[in-house]
Each structure stands twice: as C-alpha cells, then as structure tokens.
C-alpha cells in the first residue's frame, strides 16, 4: 500500500477546549475537516510518532466509526506502527486511558463529545490523550491548534481496507513497512483492571445478598452511552446483579434521543424511578463513561463534591489503596471544598486545580495525588488519568459494603463529623457569546478593583463580607506551567464562594456556569436550594447576569 499526500487548507477554530475539539457533526464532516485535525494531532507528537502504538476508540456516537476508519488510514500513512482499535470503534474514555497505560502506547485518540447530545444534528468530538493516559496538557493542545492554522497537506493510505466490527489482528505493508491494526474487545481490559482494584468476590456477595441476606437493589442507567457494554459485564456477569438492575445499556449513535449527562435534569428518568421504588442506589453515566451521578434510596442526591469527600474518607475500604497507599487529594477550583476537610483530618496534601482532568495528571505521575474530582460529576483515582464513572459506582458500593449503611446515613454521618458544603451550579446554556464576554470582563474589573475586598453583601437576612476575589490562575507544582483566567472567584469571610466561568466544552454560543459553595458546621440538614438562595441572589447582583444574558433562570441546575 502506498502513501498519498493530499493537499488541504486550514479551517478556523480547530482549538481544543476543556477536553478536546467539540463541534457539530456537520462541521466535522466538511471536506478534510477531520483529516486536518487528525494530521495535526499526529504532527504534534513530533519524532515520537514513528513506530509508535496508539489507541483509538470512542463513545459510539454518530460518526465515530467513520472517524475511526479515517484515523486508521491517516495513522498508517504517518509511520505509526500499531493501532489498538475498540471493536466497532467503541471504547469508553476511562477504558482508553487504561489501555494506553497497559500497552505503553504513545497516546490515544478519543472520539467523543462526552455529555453533549449525539446524532447527525448534534455534536462530535476528538480528543488526544498522552502517554500517561491523560488528556493532552495545554501546551500540547495549543501546538495542535497552531499546526491547524497552517496545515497544507495530510497523509493518507487511501486503499487500506479495514473491518473494525471484528476482533482480530491485521497486518499491512505500508510503503515497505509493517503496519498493524488490532481490533480489540471493548471491555475486557477495563473489566480486568477493575477486578484488580476492587474486591469483586466481596462485592458479589454483597450485591447478590449472600453476605447480608438481602440483594442490593440498584438501578444503573447507562443512558444509551458507551458504558452499556461495561455495565452489563461488570454488574450482571461479574457481580451477579439482576437483569432489571441495568437499563439503557445499548450504545446508540444518537443515544436513543437521551441526553447522557448524569445530573438531576438530564437523568430525570433515573431520579423519578429511584424516588418511587425501593432502590438502595441509583447511578448514571455520561456518553463516554467518565462522569457519574450517585443517588441513594428515594433519590437522595449525593453532590459530586460530597461524593469525593466520602470516598476519600473511606479509601481504606478499597484493596487498591490498601496496597498502594493513600497520597494526596485534589479537586477543581469550582468544586466545593468538602474533600479539603478530609485531607486536613488525614494529614494529606490537597490540591486545587483549574477545571478539566488534564490538570490532575502531573501530580499523579509524581506520586502526590491518588484521588480527585470535579463538581461536574467527575470522580477518579490514579489507577488511570481520566475520571471514571464505573469506578466511582464500584467505590460507592465498596463503601456501602464496608459501612453496612445506606447512602443517606453515610452522608449524614459525614456531615456530622466534617460539617457540610452546600453546593449548586447554575448553567445558562447557549447564550450569545459577545454579551457574555462583556459580562465576564465587567465583573473581573469590578471584583479586582481595590475597594472590592472588605465589601459587605446582604440578602434574605444573611450577610457576607468579601475576603478575596480574583480570576483564578494556577501554577502546576510539577512542571511549573501556568494556566491563567480559569474563572472569576469571590471568597467570603466564612469561606463561602461564588465562582463564575464560561464553559469550554460547548459547540456553539456561550454557556455561563455559576457555582455557589457555602459551608455550615452545625446546620447540616437544610435544603440546598434554600440555604444557597441568599448567595445566589448576591451572585446575580454582582455579575448583572440577567442584564447581560437576558436570562431570568438557568437552563440546568445541578
Ligand atoms: C465541563 C466540566 C468540567 C469537565 C469537562 C469535561 O467543562 O465543567 O469539570 O472536566 O466538562 O468533562 P466546561 O469547560 O464545559 O465547564 V467530560 O465528561 O465532558 O469530558
Ligand atoms: Co465525559
């Protein structure tokens, strides 16, 4: 087979966001659009690319298969020695991360727009993960973007025929050199990895009811995303849960019209079902399987910030940590600081990084971080370099088994020890970009003015005094790289916080995210929406959000 050089022209806007490049399918299917971006990803690897192994797979959304086949032809032409491709192009994001690490691959190309809706009219995405299994850091993605603005041609082995629907190894001769494509079972490696981390025998006895006399009643909703295949193998086949425990387990190109974003709005079906039934635990994942939502009996909601703190508290219940020890913890800046309190009590380092999993990788690589999370339903550990939805559910079932308590009781006990961080996030989706930029600029100017610190704000009988305000910037403790403008942040005297930033994962317009975090030592059993109302009103006043966006209510509350 021979290599063809195809002339092309740059497209504007091939700039990866918080987690890869995400655009409408119609954008990706323009002539050479995907080809350009893939070529730039490969070029960004420089000399390391020749003779390397790469992992390729995605969440099964519309255009995944076509893109995977295209990547095979472009990678072959660029001197890559071997590709590991998920069967039918299917691999969850955590599975890709695990595969990269287990195969000492140079990296992986993940085909997903994560929690964004799929289908011909909706979103597609491409993300590159590096050698450590984690999302490419800023310097790397900036390089991809720079290359995309100047690309003149890409390489292609047009005649390479590949059938990714069948597991097996194919070897090709590309310009005199062997090129290997191994189509792999999408779930086998990941399931093995989970079995190394958790005590599956113990969990099986717990789930089936052998050790308690009563089967654990669960409802696991894969929302027609990629986790379906993994969920069936792990919860049904390995842990012996009943068939009715899992739903929506067929990955579909348009997610069957569902919006696989595990939160109280988009996973409403799960929440309603668990609220009405006699379930012990409910869980849902996003399209690519890195996010998770955990709810207890009667749909008792566990905020992701609390979930992280509870898992941190009980890490000793998980064999992986018994064996490897417990290093530090971390959370993204907008995430409520519940885990900080656990870290303090256990004498562990706690890091606060910008939004996006790529910022956790370095700390894990040098052995300072073993557990981290984000308020956006992301939880994970140093077993891989991505957040991991199924891992989080297995961690929670381990905690339930270990304590013998219900999810609600676990939380209530946690709050009685540590106090409670009430937290909410308001999303204003698909706003016009210009007024949002103006709003952020105005607010930044106001909150960084000298007289802002010390100011008092009151609402509904509660008063808050500004202690600190800035646009968050972060210096990576390991490689000293600096990330600036990571979100506007107002911290009050009592530790309560208002955070505001624009999303970096949308495919059109602007999404404003407003995060509210308020700590209470004693008053831990209140209702979050009531407790946070005064601070929300203050945030809307300071930001003048209704004026700039024309919105009087958020599109999603989590
Ligand atoms: C969002 C979340 C962020 C998460 C990112 C990727 O980013 O807020 O915490 O890391 O999505 O998650 P943004 O820039 O839209 O706020 V995933 O599951 O979509 O890869
Ligand atoms: Co995701």
Automatic annotation (TrEMBL):
<dbReference type="InterPro" id="IPR005841">
    <property type="entry name" value="Alpha-D-phosphohexomutase_SF"/>
</dbReference>
<feature type="domain" description="Alpha-D-phosphohexomutase alpha/beta/alpha">
    <location>
        <begin position="189"/>
        <end position="295"/>
    </location>
</feature>
<keyword id="KW-0597">Phosphoprotein</keyword>
<dbReference type="InterPro" id="IPR016066">
    <property type="entry name" value="A-D-PHexomutase_CS"/>
</dbReference>
<dbReference type="Pfam" id="PF02879">
    <property type="entry name" value="PGM_PMM_II"/>
</dbReference>
<dbReference type="InterPro" id="IPR016055">
    <property type="entry name" value="A-D-PHexomutase_a/b/a-I/II/III"/>
</dbReference>
<keyword id="KW-0413">Isomerase</keyword>
<dbReference type="GO" id="GO:0004614">
    <property type="term" value="F:phosphoglucomutase activity"/>
</dbReference>
<dbReference type="Pfam" id="PF24947">
    <property type="entry name" value="PGM1_C_vert_fung"/>
</dbReference>
<dbReference type="Pfam" id="PF02880">
    <property type="entry name" value="PGM_PMM_III"/>
</dbReference>
<dbReference type="InterPro" id="IPR005846">
    <property type="entry name" value="A-D-PHexomutase_a/b/a-III"/>
</dbReference>
<feature type="domain" description="Alpha-D-phosphohexomutase alpha/beta/alpha">
    <location>
        <begin position="14"/>
        <end position="153"/>
    </location>
</feature>
<dbReference type="InterPro" id="IPR045244">
    <property type="entry name" value="PGM"/>
</dbReference>
<keyword id="KW-0460">Magnesium</keyword>
<feature type="domain" description="Alpha-D-phosphohexomutase alpha/beta/alpha">
    <location>
        <begin position="306"/>
        <end position="418"/>
    </location>
</feature>
<dbReference type="InterPro" id="IPR036900">
    <property type="entry name" value="A-D-PHexomutase_C_sf"/>
</dbReference>
<dbReference type="InterPro" id="IPR005844">
    <property type="entry name" value="A-D-PHexomutase_a/b/a-I"/>
</dbReference>
<keyword id="KW-0119">Carbohydrate metabolism</keyword>
<dbReference type="GO" id="GO:0000287">
    <property type="term" value="F:magnesium ion binding"/>
</dbReference>
<dbReference type="GO" id="GO:0006006">
    <property type="term" value="P:glucose metabolic process"/>
</dbReference>
<dbReference type="GO" id="GO:0005829">
    <property type="term" value="C:cytosol"/>
</dbReference>
<protein>
    <recommendedName>
        <fullName>phosphoglucomutase (alpha-D-glucose-1,6-bisphosphate-dependent)</fullName>
        <ecNumber>5.4.2.2</ecNumber>
    </recommendedName>
</protein>
<dbReference type="Pfam" id="PF02878">
    <property type="entry name" value="PGM_PMM_I"/>
</dbReference>
<keyword id="KW-0313">Glucose metabolism</keyword>
<comment type="similarity">
    <text>Belongs to the phosphohexose mutase family.</text>
</comment>
<dbReference type="InterPro" id="IPR005845">
    <property type="entry name" value="A-D-PHexomutase_a/b/a-II"/>
</dbReference>
<keyword id="KW-0479">Metal-binding</keyword>
């Amino acid at each position: 087979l021979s290599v063809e050089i195809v002339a092309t022209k740059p497209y504007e806007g091939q700039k990866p966001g918080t987690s890869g490049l995400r655009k409408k399918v119609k954008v990706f299917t323009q002539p050479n659009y995907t080809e350009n971006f893939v070529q730039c990803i490969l070029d960004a690897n420089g000399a390391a690319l020749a003779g390397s192994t790469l992992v390729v797979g995605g969440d099964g959304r519309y255009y995944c298969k076509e893109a995977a086949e295209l990547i095979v032809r472009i990678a072959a032409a660029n001197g890559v020695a071997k590709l590991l491709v998920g069967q039918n192009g299917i691999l969850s994001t955590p599975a890709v991360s695990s595969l990269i690490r287990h195969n000492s691959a140079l990296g992986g190309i993940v085909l997903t727009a994560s929690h964004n809706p799929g289908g011909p009219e909706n979103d597609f995405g491409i993300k590159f993960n590096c050698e450590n299994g984690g999302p490419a850091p800023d310097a790397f993605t900036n390089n991809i973007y720079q290359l995309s603005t100047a690309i003149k041609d890409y390489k292609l082995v047009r005649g390479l025929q590949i059938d990714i629907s069948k597991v097996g190894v194919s070897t090709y001769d590309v310009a005199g050199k062997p090129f290997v494509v191994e189509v792999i079972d999408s779930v086998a490696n990941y399931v093995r990895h989970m079995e190394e981390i958790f005590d599956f025998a113990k969990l099986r006895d717990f789930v089936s009811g052998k050790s308690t006399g009563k089967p654990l009643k669960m409802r696991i909703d894969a929302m027609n995303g990629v986790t379906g295949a993994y969920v069936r193998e792990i919860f049904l086949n390995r842990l012996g849960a009943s068939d009715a425990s899992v739903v929506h387990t067929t990955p579909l190109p348009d997610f069957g019209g569902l919006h696989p974003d595990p939160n109280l709005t988009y996973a409403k079906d799960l929440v309603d079902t668990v609220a009405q039934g006699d379930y012990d635990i409910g869980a849902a994942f996003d399209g690519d399987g890195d996010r998770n939502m955990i709810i207890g009996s009667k749909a008792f909601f566990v905020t992701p910030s609390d979930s992280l703190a509870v898992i941190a508290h009980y890490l000793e219940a998980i064999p992986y940590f018994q064996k490897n020890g417990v290093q530090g913890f971390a959370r993204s800046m907008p995430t409520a600081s519940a885990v900080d309190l656990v870290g303090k009590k256990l004498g562990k380092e706690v890091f606060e990084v910008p939004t996006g999993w790529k910022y956790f990788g370095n700390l894990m690589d040098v052995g300072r971080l073993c557990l981290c999370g984000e308020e956006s339903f992301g939880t994970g550990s140093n077993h891989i370099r991505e957040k991991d939805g199924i891992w989080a559910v297995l961690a929670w079932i381990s905690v339930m088994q270990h304590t013998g308590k219900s999810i609600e009781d676990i939380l209530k006990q946690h709050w009685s020890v540590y106090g409670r961080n009430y937290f909410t996030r308001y999303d204003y989706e698909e706003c016009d970009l210009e007024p949002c930029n103006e709003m952020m600029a105005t607010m930044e100017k106001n909150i960084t003015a000298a007289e802002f610190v010390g100011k008092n704000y009151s609402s509904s009988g509660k008063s808050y005094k500004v202690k600190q305000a800035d646009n968050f910037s972060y210096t990576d403790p390991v490689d000293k790289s600096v990330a600036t403008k990571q979100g506007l942040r107002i911290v009050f005297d009592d530790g309560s916080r208002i955070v505001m930033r624009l999303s970096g994962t949308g495919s059109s317009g602007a999404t404003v995210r407003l995060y509210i975090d308020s700590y209470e030592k004693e008053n831990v059993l209140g209702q979050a929406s009531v407790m946070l109302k005064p601070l929300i009103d203050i945030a809307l006043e300071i930001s003048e959000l209704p004026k700039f966006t024309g919105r009087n209510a958020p599109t999603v509350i989590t």
